[in-house]
Specification:
The complex is a heterodimer of chains A (299) and B (402).
Chain A lengths: L1 E10 L2 E11 L4 E5 L6 H9 L6 E6 L2 E2 L2 H4 L2 E4 L11 H11 L4 H14 L15 H13 L5 E4 L8 H16 L3 E6 L2 H7 L2 E6 L2 E7 H7 L2 E7 L13 E7 L2 E6 L5 H11 L2 E7 L3 H12 L3
Parallel strand pairs in A: 3-8, 3-9, 6-7, 7-8
Antiparallel strand pairs in A: 1-2, 1-4, 4-5, 9-10, 11-13, 11-14, 12-13
Helix pairs in contact in A: 3-4
Chain B lengths: L2 H18 L1 H24 L20 E6 L3 H11 L3 E4 L3 H8 L6 E6 L2 E5 L9 H17 L4 H9 L13 H38 L2 H6 L4 H32 L10 H27 L8 H24 L4 H6 L6 H11 L4 H29 L9 H7 L1
The chains are: A alpha/beta (299), B mainly alpha (402).
The structure holds adenosine-5'-diphosphate (ADP) and magnesium ion.
Chain lengths: 299, 402
């Protein structure tokens, strides 16, 4: 298990991490989400030892992340980068060896991942001659080639086309199923919601929401989405423990607290005009994130 | 995995990548070939034949070479000298320094110290490189022979005209070796400067490549920055040594082999000294270049950020040149122990002034330990600078962040 505890880091006047906590369990895919500038990259850099936190600890399986542990981490930096003029296979072997693999092991792993990611034909091309999509695959291979027990990927989905998104999702799920602890950051909460077992939502350097995705959704305020062909004034009479959280294209989304009765809201809406559609759902992660933010801010 | 293994992996990659670059290997080979041809030209064209020393131009009446004499010079000695190099004008001077001061204006002036029981021939600065050096050699020989043939000064000329006469030493300096040493000192200083400048910019570009392509973040996630820097400097140092050998060994061989036995002993040892000071100087300046290189992300900014290193290198170079003129002065001695000028100044002293072995060892130790100390600082700057892409990082910020 990877545990970040009470991490703090400032850059001049900017507080990038403000007592951030995060846990990533082996065999689990953990999404690390939050808006730009929330501190995701800084936290991940602290986890791999690229940045030193001002305070707080980073531990893997109960021990501080030292060089030995860092060799077993697969890392994909937010700022992608490989040696542009070095050949694909040679570069991957080099990176695997820097992580402590013997030459034969490294070569075998490189062949495996080149094959798995469909790069075998380009194995001897300099990286700079590859298409952007293939360069992204090499970058992923670079994170995987030394059999890491912990994968830390910073925005791995950004800039990927839909097919590449599928490949990436598949590989991450497969690694998690193989017992690797996987954490990746993203600012797309919907993607995390579909893919991850657990999630940590970070804002302004601290985690505002974390836990099992399904449980979080179950525990959150349910959403009633209603569209009425008529006067939207009906929402003025909403009962207690309900709140309008969004209005998009005539559809009103009402958050229902634990005490609220969805039937009552639907009755109200019908009084406003004929119903066009009604949906009662668990909240989206993005909505939970917004709720969490509002709890922190004075209303 | 030990630090050694990691550093070796990193160094090996640097070497492999450079040696694979067709541009790098190609230009090196072409330049080496050009230099070799240039070195072979004098022999091919018969311009210079070591067996047949060039004959001095007969001096014009109005422009007789002047010989400053300290102490007494007998008529016989004067005749011997004139038999060797033609008519001279004798100027009496108080001492060697006064003579050097009075006589350095013309290219073929000489100062001779003729005291009781010893004779030392002093050529004013740079003299031995010019045609006058042949005269110096001959005067030295004539002075020695003049003693033997004091009754028949004319025979001195005859004897001197014979080839392969063993040259008798005047004082303890063999004039041929003195010439060679002066040449080595001059070339050595220029050579050191050229290669140090060249490899400083190679290092800075290597660092920028890693930083500019952002691959560095992937590397420092698993390799401590110090090891990364050490491996890089080691690898580029090996490439530098290989390239230097390729560039200069063939032309030097072409230049020196025909001379064969004629190369004075002791000059070969200076080759080792140059190689040694190259390594020490490289260690020192490479560390600085690496630290500074980590501050920028684009090659265009490299020269600007390299300025402090260049100033040090040019400073050391100038100090080395000044030391050639006065290899035994306090200035030269002090400069030979100051790390940044030591590679140049100590090399000059080794060539021209015979420092004690422990002085050389101390200067080398000082230079290398300065390099080691600077490594700590440079690694910190490297650590603070290497991850900050985009705008140039200020030195102080990098230091604080490192
Ligand atoms: N090296 C740095 N120097 C100065 N400020 C930084 C640096 N890295 C991050 N920051 C600042 O810290 C905050 C968090 O950034 P980051 O961790 O990159 O967030 P995220 O990855 O969630 O977008 C931002 O305000 C950012 O500007
Ligand atoms: Mg980020």
């Amino acid at each position: 298990m990877l545990v970040l505890e009470q991490l703090q880091r400032r850059f001049g006047d900017v507080i990038a991490l403000d007592r951030l906590d995060l846990e990533v369990v082996a065999g689990e895919l953990c999404g690390f989400v939050g808006p730009n500038g929330a501190g995701k990259t800084t936290a991940m850099r602290c986890a791999v030892g690229v940045t030193t936190p001002d305070a707080g600890t980073v531990a893997w399986e109960g021990r501080a992340v030292d060089l030995e542990v860092r060799r077993r981490i697969g890392y994909m930096p937010e700022e992608r980068g490989l040696y542009p003029r070095m050949r694909v296979a040679e570069q991957l072997v080099y990176l695997a060896r820097l992580h402590g693999l013997r030459s034969a092991e490294a070569a075998a792993n490189v062949e495996f991942w080149l094959d798995r990611l469909g790069l075998t034909a380009r194995r001897d091309s300099p990286v700079e001659e590859l298409s952007l999509g293939n360069q992204q695959r090499v970058q992923l291979a670079a994170a995987l080639v030394h059999d890491p027990v912990l994968l830390i990927l910073d925005e791995p989905f950004s800039g990927l086309d839909p097919i590449a998104v599928d490949v990436m999702s598949e590989v991450l799920l497969e690694r998690a199923a193989a017992g690797v602890a996987v954490v990746f950051s993203s600012h797309q909460l919907d993607l995390v919601e579909d893919l991850c077992r657990s999630v940590a939502v970070v804002d302004a350097g601290r985690v505002v929401l974390r836990g099992d995705v399904r449980e979080l959704k179950r525990a959150g305020d349910r959403r009633l989405r209603v569209a009425v062909d008529g006067d939207p004034g009906w929402v003025a009479a909403l009962p207690v423990d309900t709140e309008v959280v969004a209005r998009v294209n005539g559809e009103v989304t009402v958050a229902l607290g634990a005490e609220a009765d969805p039937g009552e809201v639907i009755e109200l809406a019908r009084a406003g005009g004929p119903l066009l559609h009604v949906r009662l759902e668990e909240p989206r992660l993005s909505e939970l994130f917004r709720d969490a933010l509002q709890d922190r801010l004075p209303r | 995995m030990s630090p050694g293994t990691t550093v070796r992996l990193i160094a090996a990659r640097e070497v492999r990548q450079r040696l694979r670059s067709k541009l790098f290997v190609g230009t090196t080979l072409v330049i080496s070939a050009l230099l070799t041809v240039l070195a072979a030209l004098p022999a091919l064209l018969g311009v210079f034949d070591p067996d047949e020393p060039a004959v001095d131009q007969p001096a014009e009446e109005a422009d007789l070479p002047r010989l400053g004499v300290v102490g007494a010079m007998s008529v016989a000695e004067r005749s011997a000298i004139e038999a060797a190099i033609g008519p001279i004008e004798v100027v009496e001077v108080a001492d060697v320094d006064a003579g050097a001061a009075a006589l350095t204006s013309a290219t073929n002036d000489l100062v001779a110290v003729v005291g009781p029981g010893e004779r030392v021939l002093v050529a004013p600065s740079g003299q031995l490189l010019r045609p006058g050096s042949v005269a110096a050699t001959r005067v030295a020989e004539a002075l020695a022979l003049g003693e033997l043939f004091s009754e028949e000064p004319d025979r001195v000329g005859e004897v001197l005209a014979r080839p392969s006469l063993p040259v008798e030493e005047v004082g303890d300096v063999d004039p041929a070796e003195a010439t060679a040493r002066l040449v080595v000192a001059n070339l050595g200083v220029v050579f050191l400067f050229a290669v140090l400048i060249m490899y400083a910019s190679m290092i800075i570009n290597g660092v920028i490549e890693e930083k500019g392509s952002r691959v560095v973040e992937l590397l420092v996630a698993t390799v401590p920055v110090r090891w990364l820097m050490t491996g890089k400097l080691l690898g580029l140092g090996i490439v530098g040594l290989l390239q230097t050998l390729t560039l200069f060994a063939p032309p030097l061989a072409v230049l020196l082999l025909p001379a064969g036995e004629a190369i004075p002993r002791g000059v070969g040892g200076l080759g080792v000294a140059i190689a040694g000071w190259f390594v020490a100087g490289y260690a020192l300046y490479a560390v600085i270049a690496a630290g500074l290189g980590s501050l920028v992300s684009r090659p265009e900014e490299a020269q600007a950020v390299l300025t402090p290193a260049n100033v040090l290198m040019i400073g050391g170079y100038l100090v080395g040149f000044l030391a050639i003129n006065a290899p035994s002065s306090t200035f030269a001695v002090v400069a030979s122990f100051v790390p940044f000028s030591a590679p140049y100044a100590m090399l000059v002293r080794q060539a021209l002034a015979a420092p004690a072995w422990w002085e050389v060892a101390a200067a080398a130790a000082l230079t290398l330990s300065s390099a080691a100390a600077l490594t700590v600082g440079a690694a910190r700057i490297y650590e603070g600078g290497i991850l900050r892409t985009g705008a140039r990082v200020r030195l102080r910020e990098a230091w604080r962040a490192g």
